[in-house]
Amino acid sequence: MMKHSLIAASLALALSSHFAVAAPVVFKEPTAVVLTRADGQAQTKAMVRSAIVAGASSLGWQVIAETPEKLTLKYSKGGKIELTLDASYDEKGYQLKYVSSLNLDYGMRNGEMTIHRTYERWVINLQKHILMAQMVTPAQPTVAN
Fold first, then answer.
1. What are phi and psi of 112, to 5 degrees?
2. Is the distance from CB of 11 to CB of 113 less than 8 angstroms?
3. End-to-end CA distance of the chain
4. Longest dimension (CA), the chain
5. For residues 109 and 91, is the Cβ–Cβ distance under 8 A?
6. Can you state the angle between helices 118-136 and 45-57, rounded to 10 degrees?
7. Residues 60-116: pLDDT tens digits?
8. For the whole model, what pTM was predicted?
9. Cβ-proximal residues to 132 (8 Å cutoff; 6+ apart), any chain
10. Rounded Cα–Cα distance for residues 8 and 86 (Å)
């Protein structure tokens, strides 16, 4: 009997920790990112836009709207968790801004805006991939003579 109780308690503990909801973190808008070219060449708005699109699409983000100097990006994890961000850009870099989310627990708690910690991971990963895409964006289109 004690053996069965111990097994049941262990199973309950394992399941409760597996399904535990991560504590939300204080929401912070990402800081503006300045992109500079390693080769010293001038950078254009079109090049920054291209890096944002390439970096985002490499992770499964979709461009769902576009206006001059702003892309709206959406990421969906199986339709159950979603995040939408605006990416405003110019020839110097870009700024990501929160637009909306689904099931990321965005809201006011104890006087502070909070969100699920997944938000921070997704934003940091997106920024890394945009930077990697910017590194491979050609400085100037070349034309063969």
1. -130, 145
2. no
3. 86
4. 86
5. no
6. 130
7. 999 999 999 999 999 999 999 999 999 999 999 999 999 999 999 999 999 999 999
8. 0.79
9. 55
10. 48
